[in-house]
């Protein structure tokens, strides 16, 4: 096909009904980029012979080296189907789990997706992940079952076996879709029941729960993949062929004489052809007949492969002639039979026609966007569409209309930013000269040459006789071309420095889609960041304001001018003047450097700066980390950087006391005595003034002795920790609502759905926290931590205090007692304690702290009252107090105010008593503000309470899925056991000799795991690592032998270092903390004096 011009593409952009925005999603190595190559070759952008080898959309060098896609790339394709022309904006996305964020950016811009599945490997973990992502984003999927050639060449299946295998894969994919559909229906039904319960007064005993209610009434037939629906294509992208059953239905309807509609319904399924009666009958398996799909489709493909692979020339010529194809002599004589096969198949069943026809038929245009998807795009975080201001909700109609009229509001969604070299921009590329410009330059060169020639001739005439001049003229006449090149070279050298400086620049292009209006170059628009909240910002702006006005500062909102607009064409960019609604485009804002560039280029990267000045990159996995480091060195910072070993996150927690010792014997009296002695030794290390009870209750005073705290630590049940992790966003929303209520703000209107979710969350907590020790625990929750939304809980269990986190539900009143001014200090101390634990300064997880006593002495209470009354003092009295007690004005709490209050309470105090009281307050205040003392004391109390319990380290765990053949199974197990892995499941994939091994592996042991397993198995095993959960490491990092059996087994020194201690010491070393270890200095190597012979 001829290359389509940019002008033609621009014309197609104006017809929204003919636009299809799609992305290709799949597991790693299932053939996404090869399929993309085949589709691109149909537009003449690359040669069809290079499809699958060039990997056109993998433009990065590391993508080509590793053979996997690492970033999303877009290209626009032109497709003609009958009289209708289509513009297909295609986005290729990565399949590796480390680059899941790139998949998210692609899905957000599209209306549909192509799910690619390997015909041999079937449904893999990432296949399920992308199906779920497509479902959640409400985009319509179509299916391509790829690599069917592997069933013929590698597995050597018969057509009948291949049909059953394909049928099984289709059922697996539909099972995933069915699970997603069922969960959605049941969730909607649960919401309706909740609404009905609030209205009806039916008693709980009268209700009968039927989980299937609602599923039968809902039509889900359009959700599933089925060849007769036209949303499945069978293909081999590497061999260039693919088909939907409608192709064969049209073909055989003429030969057999059966209507295409009938064949379309029966080509896939349990049907067979009765050749005598020329009828299609049902029940092929029961009667031992070949299914119609095998007889009419697969048999032909299998026979073609067999003929080409065996070099059966007669049979090949017969097939080519019957199909009416023209195969070149070069392909026919090629040594590789795959080349010959590709030439035949790509003409007979072109994959681009099959896939793009399916896309045009089944994927909706931008005009058909669903209301549910629009609402999801407009909401950020935990916000619901109903809670948005009315002005914002009105934009929904603009999304739905997708209008390109001048009056329509301009709405552009930016999914990510990606870097581009300055030399790759269209305006910086060398433009080919026109014929007029070439003629002009030639004339200019000739004129200058003639002037130079005339000047030299005039000079020579004065020095030499005329007879000697003619050879010189002839010689100079032949140098015209060289002179022209020299002039051009001089012109280029003048701008070389400027071009070089420009080429060193790195520009950022916004990967975006226009949902409404027309975007034009030079247009000024508002830019709303991901944290922009219309409820807080709209009241600051007038209803008639525009981006060109002088506007007040609004959080997370700015204005920018669209400098350049580009049509994304894979590795190339084409200039555009305007882009109407429904299209994907690129836009270039200003240049930013270094780490900011990396953070901007990859939405899944976090950049942190430590106190030491080191920059920390937080990435999704090992491959992702390597790509980010390469980008930083070669593209963004362009400097050599010193890189440390990867930093692995851990968590700290506590457990119940163990029932067996390290040699799996029940802990008896001897062990208890040893533990008591050990506890006494530990208590000697506790500073003076801190009391630790036998059951772990820690009592501690503030440095000024004005307040006493008693804190106990307990492990949370696993289901509670999991619940807190899953609802972190909801907890954060609760914190925002409570803050607004405390500050008497009304910016956060409490949505009913949010309240229902909070109530449901509270009920789940109450269900999980049952038993005597958890009585009334949920109502006593004071805070969550760290960062007020983590998996740890702070409870208050002392009298005279009522505040809790459930204020937004109206279940608590505002605290007005003596604790009101300092309760935030206790919470701050808890947040600091949970952010860095005592073992290795890592965050805590699954720990509950209970404040069982909080006493404030009379002097401390006076401090609180002084803060309460400080607002009522006028400026004159306050100044007078400061003048009377200049030495006492060192703290924020204002001791002068305390003295003023004491004088009011007892005016008969003698000067001696007054001076003594003043001295006591001065002594207390030299420790700093009382609120600061409470923060530090609470933090220390939590740490000591934690140390009074058995401490454990928690490791991040990967779920590891490995596909390996039987001969390398032992090597896979060896690598897993070496890296502390644990096998969960092993099963053989049906119809193959491939085993699927599911295991868990600590993240700390995962670096280099994939490379090692490939080396040990000679590339026959490939792992896929996905973060799964946090797991407690069973060994105690502080364990020492205490019983006789443990001494015998482990030795007195217990030299065999346990896993938890190894990880803990590694983290402590990295953070510069003290590590108890023996360092050998001035060691001498032992040697023999005599020489070995």
UniProtKB/TrEMBL annotation:
Q: Where is the composition biased (Polar residues)?
A: 485-498
Question: Could you confirm whether the keyword Transcription regulation appears in this record?
Answer: no
SUPFAM superfamilies in the record, alphabetically? EF-G C-terminal domain-like, P-loop containing nucleoside triphosphate hydrolases, Ribosomal protein S5 domain 2-like, Translation proteins
Annotated Tr-type G domain ranges read 17-261
Q: Report residue spans for region: Disordered.
A: 447-498, 862-915
Question: Entry's InterPro entries?
Answer: EFG_III/V, EFG_V-like, EFL1, P-loop_NTPase, Ribosomal_Su5_D2-typ_SF, Ribsml_uS5_D2-typ_fold_subgr, Small_GTP-bd, T_Tr_GTP-bd_dom
Q: Which Pfam families match?
A: EFG_C (PF00679), EFL1 (PF25118), GTP_EFTU (PF00009)
Q: Which domain of life is it from?
A: Eukaryota
Q: Which UniProt keywords apply?
A: GTP-binding, Hydrolase, Nucleotide-binding, Ribosome biogenesis
Q: What GO molecular-function term can you cite, just one? A: ribosome binding
GO BP, sorted A to Z? cytosolic ribosome assembly
Q: Which PROSITE patterns match?
A: G_TR_2 (PS51722)
PANTHER family according to UniProt: ELONGATION FACTOR-LIKE GTPASE 1, TRANSLATION ELONGATION FACTOR-RELATED
What name appears for this protein in its UniProt entry? Answer: Elongation factor-like 1
Instruction: Please tell me the species this chain comes from.
Output: Cyanistes caeruleus
- Gene symbol here is EFL1
């Amino acid at each position: 096909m001829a290359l389509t011009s940019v002008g033609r593409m621009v014309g197609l952009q104006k017809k929204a009904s003919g636009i299809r925005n799609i992305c290709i999603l799949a597991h790693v190595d299932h053939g996404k980029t090869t399929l993309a190559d085949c589709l691109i070759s149909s537009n003449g952008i690359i040669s069809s012979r290079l499809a699958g080898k060039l990997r056109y959309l993998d433009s990065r060098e590391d993508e080509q080296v590793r053979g996997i896609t690492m970033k999303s790339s877009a290209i626009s394709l032109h497709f003609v189907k009958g009289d209708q022309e289509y513009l297909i904006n295609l986005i290729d996305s990565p399949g590796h789990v480390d680059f899941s964020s790139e998949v998210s950016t692609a899905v957000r811009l599209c209306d549909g997706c192509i799910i690619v599945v390997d015909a041999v490997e079937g449904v893999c973990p990432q296949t399920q992940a992308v199906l779920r992502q497509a479902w959640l984003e409400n985009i319509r999927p179509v299916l391509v079952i790829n690599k069917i050639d592997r069933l013929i060449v590698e597995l050597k299946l018969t057509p009948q076996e291949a049909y059953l295998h394909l049928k099984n894969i289709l059922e697996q994919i539909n099972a995933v879709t069915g699970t997603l559909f069922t969960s959605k229906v049941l969730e909607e039904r649960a919401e309706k029941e909740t609404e009905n319960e609030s209205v009806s007064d039916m008693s709980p005993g009268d209700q009968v729960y039927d989980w299937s209610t609602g599923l039968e009434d809902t039509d889900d037939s359009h959700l599933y993949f089925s060849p007769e629906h036209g949303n499945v294509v069978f293909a081999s992208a590497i061999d260039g062929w693919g088909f939907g059953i409608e192709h064969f239905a049209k073909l055989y309807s003429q030969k057999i004489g059966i209507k295409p509609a009938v064949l379309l319904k029966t080509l896939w399924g349990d049907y067979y052809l009765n050749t005598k009666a020329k009828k299609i009958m049902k029940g092929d398996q029961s009667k031992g007949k070949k299914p119609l799909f095998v007889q009419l489709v697969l048999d032909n493909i299998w026979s073609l492969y067999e003929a080409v692979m065996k070099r059966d020339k007669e049979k090949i010529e017969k097939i080519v002639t019957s199909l009416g194809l023209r195969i070149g002599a070069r392909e026919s004589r090629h040594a590789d039979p795959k080349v010959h096969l590709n030439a035949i198949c790509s003409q007979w069943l072109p994959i681009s026609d099959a896939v793009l026809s399916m896309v045009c038929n089944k994927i909706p245009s931008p005009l058909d966007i669903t209301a549910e998807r629009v609402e999801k795009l407009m909401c950020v975080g935990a916000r619901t569409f109903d809670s948005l201001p009315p002005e914002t909700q009105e934009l929904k109609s603009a999304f739905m209309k997708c209008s390109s009229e001048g009056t329509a509001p301009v709405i552009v969604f930016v999914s990510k930013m990606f870097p581009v070299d300055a030399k790759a921009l269209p305006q910086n590329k060398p433009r080919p000269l026109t014929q007029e410009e070439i003629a002009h330059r030639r004339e200019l060169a000739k004129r200058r040459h003639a002037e130079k020639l005339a000047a030299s001739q005039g000079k020579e005439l004065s020095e030499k006789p005329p007879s000697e001049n003619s050879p010189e003229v002839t010689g100079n006449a032949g140098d015209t071309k060289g002179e022209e090149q020299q002039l051009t070279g001089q012109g280029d050298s003048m701008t070389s420095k400027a071009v070089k400086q420009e080429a060193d620049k790195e520009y950022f292009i916004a990967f975006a889609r226009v949902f409404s209006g027309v975007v034009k170059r030079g247009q000024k628009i508002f830019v709303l960041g991901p944290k922009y909240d219309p409820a807080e910002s709209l009241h600051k702006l007038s209803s008639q304001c525009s981006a060109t006005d002088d506007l007040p500062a609004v959080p997370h909102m700015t204005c920018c001018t669209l400098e350049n607009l580009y049509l994304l064409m894979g590795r190339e960019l084409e200039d555009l003047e305007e882009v109407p609604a429904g299209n994907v485009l690129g836009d270039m804002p200003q240049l930013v450097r270094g780490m900011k560039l990396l953070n901007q280029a990859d939405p899944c990267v976090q950049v942190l700066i430590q106190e030491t000045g080191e920059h920390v990159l937080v990435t999704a996995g090992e491959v992702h980390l390597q790509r980010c480091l390469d980008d930083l060195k070669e593209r963004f910072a362009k400097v050599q950087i010193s890189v440390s070993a990867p930093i692995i996150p851990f968590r700290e927690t506590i457990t119940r006391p163990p029932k067996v010792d390290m040699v799996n014997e029940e802990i008896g009296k001897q062990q208890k005595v040893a533990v008591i002695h050990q506890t006494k030794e530990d208590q000697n290390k506790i500073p003076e003034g801190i009391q630790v009870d036998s059951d772990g209750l820690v009592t501690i005073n503030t440095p000024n002795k004005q307040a006493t705290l008693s804190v106990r630590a307990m492990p949370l049940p696993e289901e509670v920790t999991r619940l807190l992790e899953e609802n972190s966003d909801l907890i954060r929303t609760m914190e925002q609502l409570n803050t607004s209520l405390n500050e008497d703000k009304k910016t956060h209107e409490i949505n009913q759905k949010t309240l229902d979710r909070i109530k449901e969350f509270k009920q789940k907590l109450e269900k999980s926290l049952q038993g005597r020790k958890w009585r009334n625990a949920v109502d006593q929750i004071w805070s969550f931590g760290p960062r007020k939304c983590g998996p740890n809980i702070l409870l208050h269990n002392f009298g005279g205090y009522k505040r809790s986190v459930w204020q937004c539900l109206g279940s608590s009143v505002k605290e007005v007692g003596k604790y009101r001014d300092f309760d935030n200090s206790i919470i701050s101390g808890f947040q600091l304690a949970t952010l860095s634990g005592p073992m290795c300064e890592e965050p805590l997880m699954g720990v509950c702290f209970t404040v069982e006593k909080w006493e404030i002495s009379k002097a401390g209470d006076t401090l609180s009252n002084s803060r309460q009354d400080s607002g009522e003092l006028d400026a004159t009295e306050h100044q007078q107090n400061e003048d009377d007690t200049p030495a006492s004005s060192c703290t924020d709490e204002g001791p002068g105010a305390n003295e003023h209050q004491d004088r009011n309470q007892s005016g008969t105090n003698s000067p001696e008593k007054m001076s003594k009281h003043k001295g006591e307050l001065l002594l207390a205040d030299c420790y700093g503000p009382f609120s600061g003392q409470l923060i530090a004391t609470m933090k220390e109390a939590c740490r000591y309470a934690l140390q009074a319990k058995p401490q454990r380290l928690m490791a991040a765990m990967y779920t590891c899925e490995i596909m390996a053949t039987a001969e390398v199974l032992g090597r896979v197990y060896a690598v897993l056991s070496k890296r502390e892995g644990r096998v969960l499941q092993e099963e053989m994939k049906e119809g193959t000799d491939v085993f699927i091994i599911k295991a868990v592996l600590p993240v700390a042991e995962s670096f280099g795991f994939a490379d090692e397993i490939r080396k040990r198995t000679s590339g026959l095993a490939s792992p896929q690592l996905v973060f799964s959960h946090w797991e407690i490491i069973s060994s105690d990092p502080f364990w020492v032998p205490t019983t006789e059996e443990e001494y015998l087994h482990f030795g007195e020194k217990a030299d065999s270092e346990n896993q938890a201690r190894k990880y803990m010491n590694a983290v402590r070393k990295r953070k510069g903390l003290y590590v108890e270890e023996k360092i050998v200095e001035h060691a001498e190597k032992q040697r023999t004096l005599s020489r070995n012979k």
